[in-house]
Amino acid sequence: MHSPTPFQKTALWLACALALTLSACGGGGGGTETASTSTTPTVIDGALVLGAVQGATIAVYAADNEGKKTGLALGTTTSKADGTYSVKLSKEYTGAVLIEAQGGNYKSEADTSKTVQLSAAVTALAFVDKNTPNTVHVTPLTHMVASRVETLIQDQDSPNITAALIKAQRDLQELLGDLDLGDTDLLTHLLPDFNSGNGKGYRYGYLLGTLEEAAKNTALHPVEFMRLCARDLADHRADGKHKGQAIQHSNNGKAMGATLCSSSLNAAALSLRHSTTSIYVGKNIDLSDASQQVAAATAHSAGVTGATATSSGAITYMEYYDETGTAQKRVFVAGREHGLGVINVNDPTAPVRATDAGLTQKIIDAGLSSVGGVVAINNSSRPLLFLFDYGSDLVVKVDVLSQTVTADHLNIEGTVEYSGASNVKISGGMLDTVQGGVWLATADGLVHYDPISMTEVARIAQPEGTVINENIGGDPSSNVILSPDYNHNGRGLIAYRLDETKAYIQDLGEWEKLLPKLSPNEPDALSMDTAYKVAVVTGEHDSNIALIYTPSLTYTLPAAPANTVKASVVSSASVGVLTAPASAVKPILLSDGVGGDCTALDISGSSVESNQHLVLFMAGNSQDLAVGLLNDPNSAAGFGMTQWKSWVGGSFGPAGDPHGVGSYQLSDGRSYGFVLTDTHQVLMIDLKKFLDAPAKATCSTRLNSDPFMDLSMIKRVAY
Questions:
Q1: Which comes out higher in pLDDT, residue 302 or 150?
Q2: Which residue, 228, 225, 232, 220, is CA-closest to 208?
Q3: Is residue 629's pLDDT more than 50?
Q4: 566 — alpha (psi -120 to 50), left (phi > 0) or beta?
């Protein structure tokens, strides 16, 4: 018997690493040494990993210039109990191959008590060389890479398979999670590792576990989930479509949900970390790094779920799968004294009231007689809502499917006053798409709360002499939430660094120098484009707004650590210093325009739809509306907003402060803004249609015709 070659020794180690239960792994073993001669068939070794798949048929095909299989199989084999395989081709071969794996079964990484049948093909695209050992591992991610390669070549975005493979790996890491793969590291050479807490294999294993967890959470077969996501992400956009065309489920022909491969993965990345059934149970592995890598990447694709920083948490959007496996799309409205409102937007052109009186009563019975805020929760295996009200520290969790309601009290000691509200304890909230849970703007500062366990995670105490704004905004993937200081004659911008649990404040003199016309005594709200990293600041009943390019902000640590645990106020001397260079700030006057009829607007709040970068401007006590389009900071136009349209005195009654507004991209691919009114209704505004409508001859930024007369532009929807 020959001694094992270096690759065979590596393969033996890989097999040991893959095994879910290790009984014996030695340093040597059987096998034959292969010589690279002109008459020796090409051999490919690797592993098939969803969990370790045993009994699958592995077939190797020559691939054409688009990465598709051609002809008959060059060789077949069956995967072993640990998922490893070795296949000898029928001839010596150098070139591109597509490997298909079908059949067999494996233990689910999300629930190791379950055995899953491999019901459809999983593939990998690779190059093999007749003169060298060849390693090709096959996983759901290699399947997604192969699908992306095919699209890149068909669209002529890559000149050949080699370039397409590298670009496809890079693109999928942007969407799914950074595996720290360089352009010379091939995914097919990397083995997922479920037994250590660092390295590329560790991150790879967690990403595969996330896919399995997401399939479990959405009641889909893992291979069907993989197939849908592979098709969805092949065009480098997680929107439930392939180049604008709907993607159907294979079992029932229904269109897949737009958020399946964004928010569902974002939720799974967070819930897998705390799972009690996963492959990681009992291994004492710190999963925080891998979890954050996947959560941060999928958060960028999850704007359609409400996973963006909007405004006060007054309106949120959720897409989820019901018990029948059907995708449901709902807008949830914090209707204040009217309770929780629900609007069915499965068809965005025909929204329908879907409020449940029984659920409303359960929320009242839990102690929440008025609903001031609602946030869709993304780190749960089930669709959950988180509710709060302004004058109480009571918070409520609602399971949308079971309609189970759970209540808890926060320990909020103080109250805060706003121009439109008094004795406020919780003024707003926004989703944390990376760590999970909700950040709440409270009288005591910023509080991180986990609705899954119904426990407080952390808080960042409010700097002395400042008041947190009722409408906060931020970007959890950049670890920052921003609030203009609401205190009269207080400070400028306040930044809450989520990773540090520290506050940084800007000197008021710097704020006033940069933005002399923007209500220096009372900037009223902030929202954020989480893709462009641009914050939108509005004043109090003003036409002046400001844009802030947040990557240019600088943070100087305090001389002494800030007290951030269970304290309602910290000295301004103990917080950090926030500095904004002039190049990062852009003042804009919404009443500007060409013509003599561009009169002032009454604007106090905003909401950004980060997929199409459209901003809806409104006010809680005004009937004025405006829509603007943010410039790409990396474009020739540069950071700013050069297009907007407005309408003064719309025919609706405003709901009052805080500003009830939210903006989301729905399943038809269009961006809609929602504004709470005083008549048990919301305005549903097609933002692009509003922006593109003709302007007056006497003002280039004012609509020529009343948008409320065009029901395709603005609908009044009861909730």
A1: 150
A2: 225
A3: yes
A4: left
